[in-house]
Amino acid sequence: MTATTESSPATTYDDLLAAITDPEGREILDPATGELVGRVHESTVEELERALARAREEQAEWAAVPDAERCALLHRAADAIEANAAALAELLSREQGKPVHHGPNAMFEVGGAAAWMRAAASLPLEPETVFDDESGTAVLTYDPIGVVGAIGPWNWPMMISVWQIAPALRMGNTVVLKPSEYTPLSVLGLVHVLNQVLPEGLVTVVPGGREIGEALSKHSGVDKLTFTGSTATGKAIMRSAADTLTRLTLELGGNDAGIVLPDADPRAIAEGLFWGAFINTGQTCAALKRLYVHEDVYDAVCESLTEVAAAMPMGEGRDERNVLGPLQNRSQFEIVADLVEKAKAGGGRVLLGGDPAADQPGHFYPTTLVADLDDDNPLVTEEQFGPALPIVKYSSVDEAVRMANRLDVGLGASVWGSDTDRAREVAVRIQAGTVWINKHGAIDPRMPFGGIKGSGFGVEFGDWGEARGHGRGLRVFQWCVRHTIV
Ligand code: NAD
User: Fold this and answer.
1) Which residue in 385, 380, 387, 310 sits closest to 356, CA to CA?
2) Would the pTM count as exceeding 0.85?
3) What is the Cα–Cα distance from 428 to 425, expressed in whole angstroms?
4) Cα(25) to centroid(ligand 1), Å
5) Which distant-in-sequence residues (6+ apart) come within 8 Å of 356 by Cβ?
6) For the CA of 450, the nearest atom of ligand 1
7) Ligand 1 close to Cβ of residue 209 (< 6 A)
8) Which residues partner with 205 through β-bridges?
9) Residue 477 forms beta bridges with which residues?
10) Which atom of ligand 1 is nearest to the CA of 153?
């Protein structure tokens, strides 16, 4: 196992692309323009087998590296991401569609990837003494689990890859990662940069589609699988992993509710509501996906939110004016368009958008707000994962809480109001992995993150995600200081 000692030089976009693209590979097109971004080599099952065998070979040696050295290497990996941020952000923007600079977009995602790498490297993970008294002493330690298989989505491909890679490496595991077939170049680019400083063979990317994901999830050479994606795929992965009893962390889909209380200030919360719902053009797991507004402030919230949303430019990602980009792929565009048509048919009042341009080269769906919807309209009950927010009026807080809780998913949720104590009383009644007050989707590496119900199980971040999520399980050492036990 060898790690380079020099700091990584900054790569240009062209050099980065040249390092990861395969002239014979499958075409990857820019979702904003339809132009060719690059070509990806798709792994065969034999290549996956070799990657897993290599990961197994390297793992014991990596686990034997002292924790402080592993942390130092992860910090250097974060340095490498930062040094190459411009090239990585351009690649991400061209492949995923998000604008490079403005708003929480490509540079933000690359910065987040570095920050999460550092968070994993900075976490104190000392053995924990659970008790030490006259009955004896019990200590918990955390050990690596072995080879971690990771399968990811296309919405935040670089940041989510780091969420999967960083805690696994910190604990002394090795990783074989299958990126989404829609955004493989972003993950190959990121891992190319990481591998400038990490020892060889710790992280291997196996691009491919569902068949490579399936092969990875049922492989006996994988000790733990970490999956981020849709609930339907999460269930398929759980079935695949059953025979080998492979441990799972499942970060799945959501349909996050936001409840605006009667005492909220519509103007003050409008921008927060907008970014909660439309971050990454709505293609975010923990985005606000259905908004419940009390009748006292309903008209004013609709008006303020429409004003903010109408002023947010959408377009091609290298144009510095844009803060929103296209949908990443055509099938997601069709899902959003279909749900908006159903909302119109169900009596929804379109406040903004809802009319995509015909014959455009990219997958742009305009920022859309649909008010006056019934709570059982498909735009409310299904995950749109795009820039179309349904707004539902309510008259009592009990009714709003019931509507927020009635779906079989529970990733995030939010409550908006001027009296934060009152908002907290409502927040504790909502069934979701995280409930925010007066913001939405503010995922933080210091806090555990994960869903309940159909949004998955297991958490990421902090020692909850790191040691417990990527460890073999707790090992208990218990001893007695006396020779007689009563
Ligand atoms: P997806 O489930 O379609 O695909 C995710 C990955 O699974 C891809 O790499 C895909 O190739 C792979 N895959 C597909 N079928 C498989 C199978 N049978 N076995 C193994 N792997 C298989 O999800 P997506 O469309 O890429 O992502 C969008 C979804 O992800 C949304 O529902 C979103 O809410 C969710 N998501 C959740 C989180 C979270 O942290 N909870 C984060 C981001 C996205």
Assistant:
1) 387
2) yes
3) 6
4) 23
5) 333, 337, 364, 365, 366
6) 41
7) yes
8) 177
9) 139
10) 26
Q: What is the pLDDT of residues 337-376, one digit of tens each?
A: 999 999 999 999 999 999 999 888 899 999 999 999 999 9
Distances (CA, A) of 368 to 243, 326, 345, 401: 44, 13, 15, 24
Protein residue with its CA nearest to atom 15 in ligand 1: 210
Cross-sheet strand order for the sheet of 136-144: 128-133, 136-144, 471-479
Atom of ligand 1 nearest to the CA of 231: 32
480 is catalytic: no
Cβ–ligand 1 contact at 213 (below 6 Å): yes
- Checking phi first, is residue 201 left (phi over 0); if not, alpha (psi -120 to 50) or beta? left
Cα(250) to centroid(ligand 1), Å: 10
> Could you read off the pLDDT of 219-249 as tens digits, one per residue?
999 999 999 999 999 999 999 999 999 999 9
The verdict on whether 251 is a catalytic residue reads yes
Q: Is 104 in the pocket of ligand 1 (CB under 6 A)?
A: no
Catalytic residue among 82, 109, 214, 285: 285
How close is the Cα of 341 to the center of ligand 1, in Å?
25
**C-alpha–C-alpha distance, residues 389 and 257, integer Å:** 11
Q: What is the pLDDT of residues 165-174, one digit of tens each?
A: 999 999 999 9
Task: Check 58, 90, 109, 251 and give the catalytic one.
Answer: 251
Other C-beta atoms lying within 10 Å of the C-beta of residue 168:
28
Spatial distance between the Cα atoms of 236 and 182, rounded to a whole number of angstroms: 19
Quick check: CB of 466 below 6 Å from ligand 1? no
Q: What type of residue is 326? A: P
User: 297 C-alpha to center of ligand 1: Å?
Assistant: 37
**If we measure between CA atoms, which residue out of 42, 246, 162 comes closest to residue 238?**
246
Cβ atoms of 326 and 313 closer than 8 Å: no
Is any ligand 1 atom within 6 A of the Cβ of residue 180? yes
Q: Which residues contact 486 (CB under 8 A, 6 or more apart)?
A: none
Residue type for position 390: P
